[in-house]
Structure formats: C-alpha cells, structure tokens
Amino acid sequence: MFFNMLAFELRYFMRQPSFYVTSLIFFFMAFFISSSSKFPLGGANVHMNSPYTIMVLTVTFCTLAMFLVVNFVASSAIRNSETKMDELVFSKPVNPLAYQSGRFFGSYLVVLIVFLSVPLGVFLGSHFGLLVGWLDSELVGPNKFIYYAAPFLYLAVPSLLVLSAIFNSVAVYFKTMMAVYVTAVVVYITYQLASIYFDDLAFRNIVVYADPFGTGSLIDLTRYWTVSDKNTEVLTLSGDFLINRILWVAISLAMFFGLGKLGNRVVTKKQKKQFAVSTFVKNKQAALISSAKNYKSKGVNTKSQLVMRSLFELKQVILSAPFMILAGVSITMLLAPLFAPIGAYGTTDWPLTQNMVGIIQNSSALFMFIIIAYYSAELVWRERQSGMGDIVDSFPVHNSVFWVSKIIALITAVCGLYLVGMMFTIAVQLFKGQFNLELGQYLFRYHLF
Question: N or C terminus: which one in the chain shows less Cβ crowding within 10 Å?
Fold first, then answer.
C-alpha cells in the first residue's frame, strides 16, 4: 500500500501543469542568476558554479520552496477531504498508516524532483553565461558532480522534509488550504526576520542548532573560508552542521508521525431525521411562486446596490482570519524599524517623514502583494466555490455592481492597511518629538504612488 500510494502521487502530480510550471520557474531563476556576474553570491572572484555558490543558492531556494510544499504536500493531504472521498477510501480495507505515509512521501518526492531544477539551472546557466560572454572565464570553474550533490542532499532534502512535515500537519488538522497559506506566509516572514540575527555574535550558538534550513550552521561553517576554499571546498556532514541536520530530520519525522493523525479513520456523522413537508407548507410555497414578480435591473437604484454590495465585500475581506493575521504580522514588522530605524553604516536615522515613509513601504510591500493576489482570487470566485453562483446571477442586479464592488472592497482594504501604518508612524514621530509631520509626503509618496 505504501509504495502504491507513493507511485500514485508521483503519477498524479507529474500530469499536473503546476509540476512543469514550478519546475521551469525554479530552473530559470537559478539559470539566470548563475549566468551573469551581476549576482556575485559567493563574493568577488568566487566561481558562479563553485561549491559555495551552489550552497548559497540551495539555501536561498529552500526558503522559496515552502510554496512548492504548499502546492504539492498540503494539497495532497486534504485532497480527499475537499473532494468528499474520505468515507469511500476508508470504507475499503486499507491501512491508514501506510496509505497516508505513502501519500506524504510521494508528494514530498515530487517536491524534491522539482527542486532538482535548481542545480540543473546552475550547471547550464554557468556554461551559457560563459558561452554568450556574460561571464568571464575566470568566474567559471570545473563542474564536479559532488559540488551539486552535497548541497542537495545535506541542505535541500532535510529542509524540505521539515517544511513538508509542518504544512502536512497544518493541512491535516485544519483541513483547509486557507490555514496552510496563512501558515506559509507567517513562517516565511518570521524566518526572514530571524535571519537578521544569524551572524550576530550573541546568537551564533543558538542559530547553529535552531535554524531548520541550516543557514546559520552554514554561515558558521564557512565564516573563515578564503576565496580558494569557496571555489574548491565541498560541504561535509560534520560538527554542528551534522547535529543540526540530525536534529531537524528527527523533529520533522516526529511532527509527521505525531501530528499527522495517521491512525485515524474517518468518522461519519449521523444523518438527522428528515421530516416530511406538510401540505400547508407545499401550498404556501406554490402560492409564493405563482405570485412572484419578474424584476429587472432597469429602474433599480444601482448606486444603493453598489454601496451595499461594496460594504458586504469589504466585511468579507477585513473580518476574515487570514487578513487579520496578515495585518497583525505587517504591523508587528513595522514597529521594530520604526522605533530603531537603522541608517547607513549602522547609524540611527532621525524620525523624519522622508525616512518613515520608506520604512512603511519596505515593511508592507510583500504583505500588500500577498493580500492583493490572494483576495483578488478569493473575491472573484467566492460565489462559485460556495455553490451560490447561479443564485447570485439570478438577482435583479447589474453585473457591474458585483465586479466594481469587489474592486472597491479590495482597494479600500489595502488603503485602510496603509492608513493604519501611517497612523502608527505618525504616533511614533510625535512620541520621539518630531512634530513636522509633512502629511503631503504621506499622501503622495505613500498613498498615491
């Protein structure tokens, strides 16, 4: 059963367009990064295909790969629940442990196959850059299989297993992709914030073991490597790096077997007793249908409908759990640089509006992109996903009311989040004694642009 389900997941995802789209995205990102000298990841005079550069690229793409894990592992974990196939599957004599383990490791193997496009992109990109003249011959060294295999086995395989275990547990527990998406965003942002302290002397001993991606261990291991070491030294499992990898593989397996509900079968709920419809109710329904009027949108107050519908759509956005979580994380990320704005060479900037606007833009840009991308799809498809599309389409309301109200709600939510950030920033300025607020900069640089 285990190997049957593993093979099934491989066949299923390899027939999906997302498998090839994500593979091409990761391939071309690694390809163009390694084919140009504009991205000196290893530093000056370090080969674009050196072991150190490949290690840095692998770690970088591991953090981006959490969205691969969401697409493959998490969707596999809740596929039966979304398609209402749980009862049918577990009515058969299947072993739940073997069945769900096979699905998990099958989808995890798909993630690894997609991630193989990264070392392939580095290999072909460095040769292509040398061929077309984007790279000098001094920046391309010899290609050895171990240069690519070691980072993939020691960095990518354990790190992706950790992510797979996290998102599989969330998907199994909540049985909704919305919870997985929010978790992915929070994990990504939290890790980016924590990475600030990776090279801090006070946190080095903690980061070496606490980093699930091994970035802290890698920094500690290669801190004193020379250019020659970066071009020739191969990553090996030893010391603190070995302990880090063993620790997080153990944690990920414990998380999968402990939180994956592997022994649970589906428990069907008892159906409530259905009462027959009385003759009085049937006659009442027939009377209502016969007296129904055929309303048309002509003559209806479209303006009032638009206002009402916009308020409804706005409530659906701002009162939803994902928006509140994203807004909370966005404000949290904003507070730290507001109270301690770091300028050039580690100096502290004054709380001038020209500095504060840049801080808000930098801290909230990613969240705005996520909110717009997620809620654009969520607003457009809500009626279809809930099965209310045909009913809503039968309303005596012009189509423009629905479309325009969704756009207004999304713009209002985003502008509202910007406004909250602006109010926090102004409060910090007043607290620090900066009373020249220059509201024009907020209005033009912040809101208008």
Answer: C
